[in-house]
C-alpha cells in the first residue's frame, strides 16, 4: 500500500479540533476494523499520523496505547520499527447475535433511518461529483466482495464500498458518518443468519449503484442505495424479533 493511499485513508478519519484521546482511538479502531489499514501495514510515524489526523502528537500517542492494549497494533523497536496493524479477529456469530438482541427495535430503526439518509445522500452527490478514478476504486471493492470467503472479508468489502461512495461525494462529514455506521452495524449484516447466501445479491445491488454513479443518474443512485440499506435493516429487525421470540419461549 503506497504512502499516497495511506494519506487518502487517514483523510477519511480526520478529527475535529478537540482531539480527545478516546475519539482518536475510536476513529483508528474503526479504520482498522473496516480494513482502511491492512493487516501487517506499518502506520505512519506518530508525528506524521498526528498531523494527518489534525491532533496533537501526545494525544495520538495516548490513543495508540489503547490500540496496543486491545491487541489491534504492535510496536516493534529498532531500525525498522514502528506500529504495525495486527491480524483482525473474527468474532463468533453468537456474540454478534447477542449484540443484535441487546439493541432495541427503535434504536435499530433509528440507525437504519440515519444510514438511509447518509448513504442515500452520498450516492446522489457522488453521481454528480465522482470521477472515473473513484468509480474504479468503488469497483475494486465490489470485486473484493465477489472474492471474499469469510464474514470479515465480506463485511470489509461491503463497508469500503459505501465509504468510497461517500468519499466520492466529496463530503468529509458524510464519509465520517458512513464509517461510524458501518462500524456500528455493518458486521451484523454479514452474519450467517442475516445474509446467508445473499452475497451475490448484495454484490449485484452494489453494481447497480455503481452504474448509476457512472451514468450520473443521481435520482436512481439515491433510490437504489436507500432500498439497499432498507433491505439490510429489515433483515436485522426480523432476526432480532426471532431472537426475542426464542427467549420468550425459553
TrEMBL record:
SMART domains xrefs: FCD (SM00895), HTH_GNTR (SM00345)
SUPFAM superfamilies: GntR ligand-binding domain-like, Winged helix' DNA-binding domain
InterPro entries xref list: GntR_C, TF_FadR/GntR_C, Tscrpt_reg_HTH_GntR, WH-like_DNA-bd_sf, WH_DNA-bd_sf
Protein name: FCD domain-containing protein
Short name of any one Pfam family annotated for the protein: GntR
Keywords noted in UniProt: DNA-binding, Transcription, Transcription regulation
Domain HTH gntR-type: 18-88
Amino acid at each position: 500500500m503506497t504512502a499516497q493511499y495511506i494519506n487518502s485513508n487517514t483523510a477519511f478519519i480526520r478529527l475535529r479540533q478537540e482531539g480527545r484521546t478516546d475519539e482518536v482511538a475510536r476513529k483508528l479502531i474503526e479504520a482498522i476494523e473496516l480494513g482502511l489499514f491492512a493487516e501487517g501495514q506499518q502506520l505512519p510515524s506518530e508525528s506524521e499520523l498526528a498531523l494527518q489526523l489534525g491532533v496533537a502528537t501526545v494525544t495520538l500517542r495516548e490513543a495508540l496505547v489503547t490500540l496496543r492494549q486491545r491487541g489491534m497494533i504492535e510496536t516493534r523497536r529498532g531500525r525498522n520499527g514502528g506500529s504495525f496493524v495486527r491480524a483482525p479477529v473474527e468474532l463468533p456469530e453468537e456474540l454478534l447475535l447477542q449484540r443484535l438482541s441487546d439493541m432495541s427495535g427503535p434504536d435499530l430503526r433509528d440507525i437504519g433511518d440515519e444510514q438511509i439518509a447518509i448513504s442515500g445522500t452520498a450516492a446522489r452527490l457522488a453521481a454528480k461529483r465522482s470521477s472515473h478514478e473513484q468509480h474504479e476504486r468503488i469497483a475494486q471493492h465490489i470485486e473484493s466482495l465477489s472474492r471474499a470467503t469469510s464474514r470479515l472479508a465480506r463485511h470489509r468489502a461491503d463497508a469500503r464500498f459505501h465509504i468510497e461512495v461517500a468519499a466520492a461525494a466529496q463530503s468529509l462529514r458524510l464519509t465520517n458518518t458512513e464509517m461510524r455506521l458501518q462500524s456500528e452495524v455493518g458486521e451484523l449484516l454479514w452474519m450467517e443468519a442475516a445474509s446467508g447466501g445473499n452475497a451475490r445479491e448484495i454484490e449485484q445491488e452494489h453494481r447497480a449503484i455503481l452504474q448509476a454513479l457512472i451514468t450520473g443518474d443521481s435520482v436512481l443512485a439515491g433510490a437504489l442505495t436507500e432500498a439497499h440499506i432498507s433491505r439490510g435493516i429489515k433483515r436485522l429487525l426480523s432476526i432480532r424479533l426471532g431472537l426475542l421470540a426464542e427467549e420468550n419461549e425459553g
